Known about the structure:
The protein is α/β, with parallel strands linked by helices. The chain is built from 8 helices and 7 strands, in the order H-E-H-E-H-E-E-H-E-H-E-E-H-H-H.
Amino acid sequence: MLSKRLETVASLVTTDSVIDVGCDHGYLDIYLTLKGIKCLATDVSINALNQAITNFKKYNLDIDTLFTDGLNGIDIKKNDTIVISGMGTDSIIKILNRDINNDLVISSNNHLERLRRYVVSLGYYIDKEVFVMDNNKPYVIIKFKKGKKKYHDYDYIIGPTIKDEDYFNYLKNKYTKILNSIPNNYRDKIKYYQDLINEINIRINNY
Ligand SMILES: C[S@@+](CC[C@H](N)C(=O)[O-])C[C@H]1O[C@@H](n2cnc3c(N)ncnc32)[C@H](O)[C@@H]1O
């Protein structure tokens, strides 16, 4: 049974082959393979990869695997979507240290503003983002494609493509809590969060 988060990751794959970096249990690869998508399941942990291999055998699926750190040693084909999911932005940035042009589907656990800025600096644009609550935890899954688009600072913080009431409410709650916890003398910080909440309100009114 695939989590809502991984189902969302899978829904953003539009090519017929995937490199799943950090596959862990391999559930995503099982799901995608059953849908006819060819997967290479990789992990830097041999225990995780062995668990994935055990799971593949249970489903009688012949899925390629590779024990490696990030994209090291992977023969990346033009049509491969690279999935990096369930890690922090720092790890994801380290993994993206190769010159690549492939579609990327990324589910980071943190620092989404930094992630967006970094991947855009590599010559990508944000094609689609999906907000999903899974086990009461919020996730934004981002699909990047190679190409250029101009972004405002708020696009990196909020995300340029999401038009989802639940997402906007989640963000407003989060930033309102932060705003209410800032001491009165931190004027710049207060203004930053007030402006951010205003921007979210503008987006709510415009979608
Ligand atoms: C929390 S699990 C996420 C599993 C799955 N991708 C998901 O989204 O549910 C993170 C996995 O990434 C692997 N990992 C972390 N850093 C990695 C790297 N540099 N290269 C490959 N795998 C890595 C870990 O060993 C672990 O199995």
